Amino acid sequence: MLVAGAGALCLTLSGCAGAGSLGASDQTITIAMVSNSQMQDAQKLASQFEEENPDIDLKFVTLSENQARAKITASTATGGGEFDVVMISNYETPQWAKYGWLKNLSEYAEATEGYDEADFIPTLRESLSYEGNMYSVPFYGESSFLMYRKDLFEQAGITLSEKPTWTEVAAAAKQLDSEDMAGICLRGKPGWGELLAPLDTVINTFGGRWFDEDWNAQLTSPEVERAVQFYVDLVREYGQPGAATSGFGECATQLAQGQVAMWYDSTSAVSTLEDPASSAVVGKIGYAPAPIEVKDNSGWLYSWSLGIPESSENPDAAWKFISWMTDKEYIRTVGEDLGWERVPPGSRLSTYEIPEYKEASAAYGPLTLEAIENATPEAPTVQPVPYTGVQFLAIPEFQDLGTRVSQQISAAIAGQQTVPEALAQAQQYAEVVGATYREER
Fold first, then answer.
1. Mean of the pLDDT values across residues 182-204?
2. Closest residue by Cα to residue 246 from 204, 213, 198
3. Which residues lie closer than 8 Å to 331 by C-beta, 6 or more apart?
4. Coil, strand or helix: which one is 302?
């Protein structure tokens, strides 16, 4: 059942204890997760874990993406011990490992027979590591690509290049936009992990950057202004209604329900779009690499992964759950029990060798793997920069800086201010952060 409270959802399978629990167990593991479809599938299958581990009860706390980031960060940073397992990403993991907030999971993985840490896609494994050890392990990995209605493109006589440009995408959106169908869906919802995820890749490929090599803010540069103006104009003119409040979930729903012709976003979206139970466009979607402009190869690199806070009182039981949820066998269980289109993508190389998955993911699987393997977080921009990360900057200040900048740009999408006005304010925020780094040099 779903129990609402304090802006979060505690999704539990038997009250706030685990599935199949007939009484008090030895340990209760509290797991903080983002409420995406793959995580909901894990909760559906959690009874299998508890049957195999009757001394462990599972308590899930599921939150929206922005809520999860704030609550998990606050709990882990203060050592509150509220959660035994936290869903984090390749943004938090190396930083938190450096601060001593997370358990070293390579030590657990090496002691777990058959877990095969080396099977994780190398770019993801490296992005979740600190000083050679993994401090979280990927539940799924993602890059970004363009999703489009093949049937509508064919009817309109539109053909995309093998590596489409944003200029091509804008022209297609204009041609396909109508009263009944938006030409494209793009995130406009504030949040460093919402609007800024796709927008940062646009800034990068248009030749923009947040800071130059000396940490001077560059958000009012011609390259950044051109990229942001392009994005805002595209979604305002040919995008979905209510774009300023649309995030990943809203765009997924609109494309799945046949309300938009294109969507640029995470490769993980296929779990919704290709699921017959939730999508009206199964088999109608084409997939293309992340659109480019000046810089080639603009797809992001991201992973929702699972870590154990140092403050957890039950780290061994927490690892049992994590290793179950990120093991090769779990991937096969999802495919066999729920459908191969719902397999968590982009974490293990072996996933792409499973015959059933290769068949089910023929349209998007190879492109997803290629995008993840070719992502360039160490060199995300055309000009040199002092930071790493494609759709985020791997610095602690980016959670606050990115969120505040996104609020300004979302306001421009809503028509409340111009892009130059939004970027002028964003520049001031960035200058404060840049000054801190210059002082440290």
1. 97
2. 198
3. 343, 344, 347, 348, 351, 354, 357
4. strand
**62-95 pLDDT, tens per residue?**
988 878 888 999 999 999 899 999 999 999 999 9
Residue 74 has a pLDDT of: 93
| Residues contacting residue 15 through CB under 8 Å, at least 6 positions apart | none
Q: Band the pLDDT of 4: cuts 50, 70, 90.
A: very low
Distance CA 129, CA 59 (A): 27
Task: Specify the pLDDT at position 38.
Answer: 85
User: What are the CA-CA distances from residue 309 to residues 34, 77, 132, 239 (Å)?
Assistant: 17, 9, 19, 40
- For residue 408 the two structure tokens come to 């300004």
Instruction: Decide: 191 and 65 in contact? Cβ < 8 Å.
Output: yes
Instruction: Give 3-state DSSP helix, strand, coil % of the chain, rounded to 5.
Output: 45, 15, 40
| pLDDT of 380 over the 90 cut | yes
Tell me the DSSP string of 332-361: HHHHHHH-GGGSPPSSBGGGGG-HHHHHHT
Q: How far is CA 130 from CA 94, 133, 309, 408, in A?
A: 5, 5, 15, 33
Question: What are the Cα distances from residue 158, in Å, to 14, 43, 172, 176, 231?
Answer: 51, 41, 7, 10, 21
pLDDT exceeds 60 at position 261: yes
**Alpha-carbon distance 102 to 68, whole Å?**
17
Fill in the DSSP letter of residue 276. Answer: T
Contact 412, 422 (CB under 8 A): yes
- Helix or strand or coil: residue 68? helix
Element (H, E) at 174: helix 166-176
- Judged by DSSP in three states, 149 sits in strand
Per-residue pLDDT, averaged over 249-278, amounts to 94
Cβ-based neighbours of 46, under 8 Å, separated by 6 or more: 13, 18, 19, 58, 60
**pLDDT reported for residue 12:** 32
Looking up tokens 């952060």 gives 433
The string of pLDDT tens digits covering residues 34-58 is 888 888 899 999 999 999 999 999 9
Residue 302 has pLDDT above 90, yes or no: yes
Alpha carbon distance 256, 274 (integer Å): 8
